[in-house]
Amino acid sequence: MKHIALVAAFGASLLVACAGENTEPLEPAKASSTPGNATAILNAGVTADLGEQGQSVKILFDPLYDDHYGSFQQLSEPLIDAIVTGAPPYDNVAAVFVSHAHGDHFSVSQLTRMLAEQPDLRLVAPEQAVEQLRASEKWDTAFDDRITGLSLENGAQSESFEIAGATIEAFRSPHNGWPDRHADVHNITYRVSAPGEAGLAQRVMFLGDADPGVEYFEPHAEFLAAKRTSLAIVPFWFLQADDAETLFDATLNTQSVVGMHVPVREPGWLSGSGWDYFTGVGQTAPIPDLAAE
Question: C-alpha angle with apex 236: 258 to 76, nearest 5 degrees?
Fold first, then answer.
C-alpha cells in the first residue's frame, strides 16, 4: 500500500489550529485546486480535480453542510459564498456529489443556491437528498434536468454514466453504525474516473460515512476488483479498522488513501496511525495515474 504525503497550502500552522477546541472557520483565499489532486474543504468536503492537464474535470464531494453537531469545523460565510458562486478555487466545477442526507454532509439551502448561481452545474445525490431539495421553497423545476438521484438498496450498484468526460459509478453500503444506527440512511460511495496523461487514468473513490466492515463490501467485490482506484477518500474511522492495509489494498482495491471527516477534537490515536488525513481547508493529496482499465 502506498502512503501519500499531505501538503498544506498555507503552512504547518493549520495543523496546530485544527487541533484546538476553539478553531475559527478558515477562509477560501487559503485554498487552491490543481489537476491531479484532491483538496480538502472542511469536514468531509473535498475537491477532486482529475484527468489530463488542460482537460481535467473538477468535482466536489459533500462541500456544503448546515450542522457541525459541536464536533466539526463550521463553514465561514466567505467560504460558503465562494463554493456557491463558483469563485476560485471552486470555479469550473462540473458536478457536486452528495453521499447522504445528513446535516454534516448536506445543505438544502446552500445547494439550491448553488444550482441557481451555476446554471451548468450537475448534482448527483441519493434520492433521499433530492426529495429534500425538491421540497425547498427555493427549488426551481429547471434544476431537474441537472439532477441525478440514486435510489439503491444496500449492496446494489448504479449503472455508470458520464459527466464532463468523467465516468461515474456508485454503490450503496451501510452508514457507519448499521444496523443499530442510521439503518434507513442511504449512504452512497462514488467512484469517478477520468482519462489521464499518455493513455493512463485517474480514479477517485469517496465513501461518505460508510461502515468499514469488510462484509459490507462483499456484494461489491467484483465491482471493486474490476478497476483499481488511484485515491480513496475515506472517513477517518476507516484508518482504525482491523487490518486496514488489507481493507484498502485488497477489498477497496485502492493505490492510496486519505482520511476525512475528522472532528476538531482529533482522536488521540489518529496521528500515530501511520495514515494520511485531512484536517483543514487547502490540504492536498495526489491522485496517482494508473493504467486505464
Answer: 85
pLDDT in tens, 108-157: 999 999 999 999 999 999 999 999 999 999 999 999 999 999 999 999 99
Is the distance from CB of 8 to CB of 15 less than 8 angstroms? yes
What's the length of the chain?
293
Burial pattern 43-56, b for ≥16 Cβ within 10 A else e, equals bbbbbbbbbbeeeb
pLDDT digits (tens, 9 = 90+) for 227-251: 999 999 999 999 999 899 999 999 9
What's the rounded Cα separation, in Å, for the pair 149 and 27?
31
- Global pTM reads 0.90
C-alpha cell at 59: 468535482
Q: Do 266 and 237 form a contact (C-beta atoms < 8 A)? A: no
User: How far is Cα 77 from Cα 96, in angstroms, rounded to an integer?
Assistant: 19
Contacts within 8 Å (CB) and 24+ apart, 6-10 = 6/258, 6/276, 6/277, 6/278, 6/283, 6/284, 6/285, 7/283, 7/284, 7/285, 8/280, 8/282, 8/283, 9/39, 9/282, 9/283, 9/284, 10/282
Residue 63, C-beta contacts closer than 8 angstroms, at least 6 positions apart: 41, 45, 46, 47, 83, 90, 96
Does residue 204 come out as left (phi exceeding 0), alpha (psi in the -120 to 50 range) or beta?
beta
Separation of alpha carbons 27 and 88, rounded Å: 12
Distance CA 67, CA 260 (A): 16
At 39, list the grid cell. Answer: 483538496
Residue identified by cell 477517518 is 236
Rounded to whole angstroms, the Cα distance separating 251 from 229 reads 11
